[in-house]
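Annex B. Sample input.
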Amino acid sequence: MENKIKVGILGLGTIARKMALTVNESDCAVLYSVGSRSSEKAEDFAAEFGASKAYGSYEELAEDDKTELIYIATPHAFHFDNALMCLKKGKHVLIEKPAAVNARQAEIIFSYAKEKRLFAGEAMWSRFQPVQRTLEELIKNGAIGEVTCVCANTGGRMTSVPRLVMPELAGGALLDVGIYPLNFASMIINEPVVNITGTACLTDKGVDGQNGFILTYESGKMAILGSSMLSEMDSMGIVYGTEGRIEADGVINISSFKVINKDGVKTITRPYQHTGFEFELNAAVKAIKEGESEFPEMPHNETVKMLNIMDRLRSNWGVKYPFE
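Annex B, continued. Sample output.
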């Protein structure tokens, strides 16, 4: 335990449980503390997952002397305040995606982390999956020739989830699930975006219920993307090249993908994973131990780039949150 990073979890909802399971199976981290706005909830969570400390406020968690890395698992709208508070208490932070609601918030978080020589990273778990690396290597090695276009989408029926419905919680499909096809495209086409077009259907509360958008890159490549919280989507990612295509089953956590080219069809299946969060956790611990302020897999400028694109889309759609 002495060589393991002591992790705290701030916000104890569904995704926090997944991270708790991940930390408990880790060789490099240990679940040390948890924090909720309810002492009872914190104590129950700590008892279930074996945390040493349970706090009934986020501030108390951030002030714990032994906690080193805090995973922030609150709704999107609170990531900025929670992350800054933890950083100001001298804690490294791993922030559930999106790291912030807009690009300006992310820039402030990352600038402060670098100034204080602390780690701050966005837990965009799709960026860390070994199967994603395999897909990218095949493309780099010419399996489908030169990439010309990426098509990707994801979505589900989620209109009963308050954090997705309410503007004050930074609701809408784009920030919660649209961020996945956007990141999928960016991992494949790592070029400046020169044009962004798109449309969205807004709910009666003024957030995007479903959307579709197109990115045009400097070289003329395109990404055609979409997301929804109104209906189940196939969550496919397709990469088109001059000599074939790749069809990925799921852009959030790829289960398998097919390489279709002149040699026929080859299927690559995702290797074993515990929860899928272990790869981002391992990367965060590695960065902290090496004295880095950011992930190489998801550097600060990439998080800001994704948020800038989403800022532009929301602006075009007229989606602005009350606290912005």
